[in-house]
Amino acid sequence: MKILVVGAGAVGGYFGGRLLQAGHDITFLVREQRAQELATRGLVIVSPRGDVTLPQPPTVRADTLNTPFDLILLSCKAYDLASCIASIRPAVGPATVIVPLLNGLQHLAVLDAEFGPARVFGGLCQISSTLNAQRDIVQLHPGQAMVVGARDAAGQATAEAFVQLLRSVDVDARASTQVLQDMWEKWVFITALAAPTTLMRTAVGPILQAPGGADFIQALVAECLAVAAAHGHAPGPGFASRLALLNDRDSALTASMLRDMQAGQRIEADAIIGDMVAHAEQAGIAVPLLKLAYTNAKAYEATRAAAA
């Protein structure tokens, strides 16, 4: 399977790097600066699962991309989706499939409009990784998982083949026949985590220890669950174990959106919290706390833009 990984950052660079390490046919679509970094230092992964340096990994820039790939792994941020779509067009052939790992669901409609739903799979991943000052990929915890599923039954064999590749490099991968349900459950969780931690500017534990904090988080969770249920995707029984992470008074858990705010970076306000609010409005559900969290996130974006 000939795979194009869009970007070589903390997520795409990690999964693509592990596949490349095992000898699979991987090419990274990167900008000029990242191409130079990879040519000079190699793709460096620092991980509890073992460090590796991959010298001069195969790369291509958007202006030189001119051949189709079997699968495109798309792990960009929501605010970079439009530019990524323009970059990958030359790599999309008659049999190409796209596996997006973006948060939320908003990206599916955008990709469907460009490439057609039959070739746009559903996907999600769970990994804690970042780029350090040297631009090395640092995996913070050993967990690494991915769920992939075709939204058209004809594509499921390709999804299963990709999952087998991931499993061969010790990724806890699963081919799903209900990938939209899986994506909804992840979206509910990350929204229920992002909303309170960005509003209060702290981790779950200190919020729970504050007066009214537990009720506040529970009310936000209830809003998210109501939206999912109204759209036919109420989380299954196993979801309760994930929600338990939001009830730990000693937890240092925060959303990546909060970490991006603290670093002065761009955030995915519209794709995560904003789209959950939009789905609530479509269903006629009142979500006052989610709306407050969305206002807070958009105020951050406005302040950041004014300072730029």
Report on the architecture of this protein:
- It is an enzyme of class 1 (oxidoreductase).
- Pathway: Cofactor biosynthesis; (R)-pantothenate biosynthesis; (R)-pantoate from 3-methyl-2-oxobutanoate: step 2/2.
- This is 2-dehydropantoate 2-reductase.
- Its EC number is 1.1.1.169.
- It holds the Pfam family ApbA_C.
- The chain is an alpha/beta fold.
- The chain has 2 domains: about 1-175, NAD(P)-binding Rossmann-like Domain (Rossmann fold); about 180-305, N-(1-d-carboxylethyl)-l-norvaline Dehydrogenase, domain 2.
- About 45% of the residues lie in helices and about 20% in strands.
- The chain has 12 helices and 10 strands.
- It has helices spanning about 10-20, 30-40, 80-90, 105-115, 155-170, 180-200, 205-210, 215-230, 240-245, 255-260, 270-285, 290-305; strands spanning about 1-5, 25-30, 45, 50-55, 60, 70-75, 90-100, 120-130, 135-150, 170-175.
- It has a 5-stranded parallel beta sheet with strand order 5-2-1-6-7, sandwiched between helices.
- Helix 6 (about 180-200) packs antiparallel against helix 8.
